[in-house]
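The instructor's notes for this session suggest beginning with a concrete chain rather than abstract definitions. Hand out the sequence below and ask the class to guess, before any prediction is shown, which regions might be ordered.
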Amino acid sequence: MPGTGEGDRKGFEPMRIPIIFLFLLVILSSCVSTNVVKYPNINYPPTDYRNIVVYHNFPPTTKYEAIGEVVSEGAPAAKWNKVYDKMKKEAAVIGGDAIVIQQKEEQFSMINVNAGTVLYKKNVVGIVIKFTNQDSG
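After discussion, reveal the predicted structure:
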């Protein structure tokens, strides 16, 4: 009906739902969850996460100590560098100098039949290490 605004609202409602859905999809699809577990009796001061190195193979022959494990799970749209940054931040809290990736995979998450897409979540497991041959000053 002209002038009542009812016709306008009905025309607006169908557009509002897809916009909200897209907003939530973008927010949730880039989420990354990360956990770190410090090994018992290991106590090092925190390090700067920007200096932590990520190894995809075993680290060089430099002496080190394994001080914990870090596990990260990313949503399908999460970028790998965001996953690694979260891992570095958690490793820094327990004093890590590097992370040695033990497992990296994209696991099946869901199929959207209507859109014809298959989504995979990112899973990464790493060992947090502390180099032990660094000069103390």
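Then share the key points. The two ends are 81 Å apart (CA to CA). The mean pLDDT is 78.
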